[in-house]
Design brief:
This protein is an alpha+beta fold. The protein contains three helices and eight strands; from the N terminus they run βααβββββββα. The chain has one domain: Hotdog Thioesterase (Thiol Ester Dehydrase, Chain A, Roll), CATH 3.10.129. A hairpin with a 7-residue loop joins strand 5 and strand 6. The longest helix is centred in the first third of the chain and has 19 residues. The protein is elongated and about 45 Å long.
């Protein structure tokens, strides 16, 4: 499990004053980048630009339970739910500050892709090892 916190910014909200739902999914990707940079064998930027590997989304499920508003603090929890040969299932929960109940949740299945070839490949061993350390039972 990995956590990060950040504020809801002015440009995250819609005309109703609520975080626009695609931004919540963007928050999840920010969580993936920060998670990987913190626990992976290299930064996410290095993985993409130098190693030419990536985690494109191939399946997504999301539930939006409570609105988040401008000025709220978001606590984003990132989990590794499953490791496949060429895929990873990540779980995300977005909380308003320290509230225990999630305002939104998402499960995102990613393929592990060789960006130069444009095809899914087996997880590199160092990537698999880093993710396996955080795999939830």
């Amino acid at each position: 499990m990995f956590e990060l916190t950040f504020p809801v910014r002015f440009d995250d909200v819609d005309a109703a004053g609520l975080v626009y739902y695609p931004r919540l999914l963007d928050y999840c990707h920010v969580g993936l980048e920060d998670f990987f940079t913190a626990v992976g064998p290299c930064s996410y930027a290095h993985l993409i630009t130098v190693r030419r590997r990536g985690f494109p989304t191939v399946h997504l499920e999301a539930d939006f339970k409570q609105p988040l508003r401008y000025g709220d603090t978001v606590r984003l929890v990132v989990r590794v739910l499953a490791l496949g040969k060429t895929s990873v299932r990540f779980g995300y929960s977005l909380h308003r500050g320290t509230e225990p109940t999630a305002a939104a949740t998402a499960v995102v299945v990613t393929a592990y892709m060789d960006l130069a070839a444009g095809a899914a490949v087996a997880l590199d061993e160092d990537v698999r090892t880093a993710l396996a350390r955080h795999l939830e039972p």
